[in-house]
Specification:
12 helices; alpha/beta; Rossmann fold; five-stranded parallel beta sheet; N-(1-d-carboxylethyl)-l-norvaline Dehydrogenase, domain 2; five-stranded mixed beta sheet
């Protein structure tokens, strides 16, 4: 099986690198600067347990050919359009895509472009970044990836990817209900991102306030109810885990979106919080916390755009 991984940053670099390390046939679709960096020093992964330097194959957009069985799509939602354009030349009629984006709404765009039969479901959990000197750095010992068929014709390649990951150090799963897995994740992520961005603090900081726990719970309840109305009620074990997280006094946990926001970068406001707000309104669910959190994020985006425009030379 020939695998193309879009990008060699924190997510694509880590999971694609571990696949390569396990013996899979992996090529990374990267920009020129990253290709030169990998050519000179290899793909370097540092985790809390090891450091590996891998000699991997790369390709740039102008040279991509339709010769891959599977494409792993790891990008931020605000880069989805350009990422879809980048992988399109790699897609044969039988090529499948495993998207690792947060959220749900990207599936509609991928289905429209490539057809639902070619788009699996997928998600991952990893705290990793690409350092300034080109090292994929995994910051905690947690690197989980799951994927699954949304169409029966995808089951074979889903299982083949599992065989490839079976030889790796990654925690992986071929899901038998990947849409439920994805809805469970977005219900929690929308809560964590919405609340930590809105309050500019960690879970522990929010819980230390007089009404923080109540507001956090209200946000989570709305997101869980959206998932239920969409036909994917989260499992009791998952809800129990979420409750522990949002009630963990002193927890330093924040969403990566908050870190992006505080660093002045782009955020996935529409994809994570805005999408859940739209669904809450469609189903007549309490949207008060989602509305405030989304408005906060959109105001940040408006200010960021205004400042960028003002900084451009006349």
């Amino acid at each position: 099986m020939k695998i193309l991984v879009l990008g060699a940053g924190g997510t694509g670099g880590y999971f694609g690198g571990r696949l390569h390390q396990a013996g899979a046939d992996v090529t990374f679709l990267v920009r020129e600067r990253r290709a030169q960096q990998i050519a000179s020093q290899g793909l370097i992964i540092e985790s809390v347990k090891d450091r590996v330097e891998l000699q991997v194959k790369t390709v740039q957009a102008a040279d991509v050919k339709p010769e891959y069985d599977l494409v792993i799509l790891s990008c931020k939602a605000y880069d989805l359009d350009s990422s879809v354009a980048a992988i399109a030349p790699a897609m044969r009629p039988d090529t499948r895509v495993v998207p690792l984006l947060n959220g749900i709404s990207h599936l509609d765009k991928l289905d429209q472009r490539f057809g639902k039969a070619r788009v699996l479901g997928g998600s991952c959990q990893i705290a990793a970044t690409l350092t300034a000197d080109g090292i994929v750095k995994s910051m905690i010992d947690a690197h989980t990836i799951l994927w699954g068929a949304r169409d029966p014709s995808q089951q074979k390649i889903a299982n083949q990817l599992g065989e490839a990951f079976a030889k790796s150090v990654v925690d992986w799963k071929v899901s038998d209900n990947v849409m439920l897995d994805m809805w469970e994740k977005v219900a929690f992520l929308s809560t964590l991102a919405g609340m930590t961005c809105l309050m500019r603090g960690s879970v522990g900081d929010i819980l230390a306030t007089p009404d923080g726990q109540k507001l956090m719970q209200r946000h989570l309840d709305s997101c869980v109810e959206v998932a239920r109305k969409e036909g994917y009620p989260p499992r009791d074990s998952v809800l129990e885990r979420y409750q522990k997280v949002v009630n963990s006094a002193g927890s330093p946990l924040t969403a990566s979106m908050m870190r992006d926001l505080e660093n002045g970068g782009p955020v996935e406001a529409d994809h994570i919080v805005g999408y859940m707000l739209t669904k809450a309104r469609e189903h007549g669910i309490d949207d008060s916390m989602l509305t405030v959190a989304y408005t906060h994020l959109k105001a940040y985006e408006a200010r960021r755009a205004r400042m960028a425009a003002a900084a451009k030379p006349a």
